[in-house]
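Exercise 7. Predict the structure of Osteomodulin from Pelodiscus sinensis.
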Amino acid sequence: MFLCQLSIISLLFGAMVFCQHQNYDFEYEYDEEPDEEYPPIFHFNPSIEYVIPHFPTPIKCPQECFCPPTFPLSMYCDHRKLKMIPNIPSHIQQLYLQHNDIEAVTAQSFVNATALKEINLSHNKIKSHMIDHGVFAKLSNLVQLHLEHNKLDEFPFPLPITLERLFLGFNEISKLPRNALKGLVNVTMLDLCNNYLDDSLLKGKYFSNMKNLMQINLCNNRLHTMPPDLPFSLMYLSLENNSISYIPENYFNRLPKITALRMSHNNLQEIPYNVFNLSNLVELNLGHNKLKQAFYIPRSLQHLYIEDNDIEFVNITLMCPSIDPRNANHLTYIRMDQNKLTAPISIYAFFCFPHIRIIYYGEQKSSINQLTQLRTPVVRRFLTPEEYDEADDGQETEDGHEEGEREDDYFHPYVY
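Solution. The predicted structure, encoded as tokens:
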């Protein structure tokens, strides 16, 4: 009897396990990707001491500004028609004062602001002589400073050694003190676009000591020559809308890390053949110049802009003197409208540049200063299924222009 009862229990247990096995979806657990919308549940561990930041209660905040409880380290004073900087509490790390009518930066406002890491004073009316001497240099934690769209006529000096990103675009800067950049060894991004800088101001090896500088924007100034003594670390160089007419043949020998170069709207007439023989160059913009012939294209280059020049014929052999299947050229996009082409470039381009997807011809200039249309304004190479899958949908529009690109815009500050 006992053995019979034991057999019945075993059969019932086996049937229950079998049913559970049939109802359990193993594929759901192992094959389906986890839902990223729901983060992992936090489990409190009593053995760990959790420290909650301490702030004054209530948190002090000037009545002119807003200090959100959810962001207790930030103070928002923007778009409030302020004419003076309010006193800043000691715990504030991010200060936003853009779009006001502030004319002066006084030391009194920053007496207690020892924790500040970011200051945004853009879009105000600040003048250089109205900035108290050393007011920024005393902020020993400052990393980012915005002073663009003001009325500065001189590079602000001195600045703290901790500074990493400095924005001075859209001012009237025409003075650069000799020691102004000497201590800025941690700056990675410097924006000086839309000022009054000329060649004489950059002759003193100002940038050579900036060992960590990765991006410098000098567009819309008064330069006639390439800026000298740029640091070895530089990756992004913006020189649009100047009057530069020539690039020295060995200019980039000291800048091997250059990834993107923008020199549209200058007076370039001739390019030394091997000047862009750079192993990291990805984007090259030479549009709106006076170029008449092609030049060597490095294998790393992906986007080439040579629109609005005086090119009548494109010699692909000059651009690509040899084909190496093991190290193919990466060029994917060429823009060459507003030149003087009478026919598309040689079909050899697709052998030399196997990754090319679009050649944009658009309208061409005729000999009597009229615009003519090539039979094929846009040439697109047929993509293999693998290439099609890799291509980003919407990356390029039907007219050959890349979406989201603003022709005269300089590098986005956080591109690196």
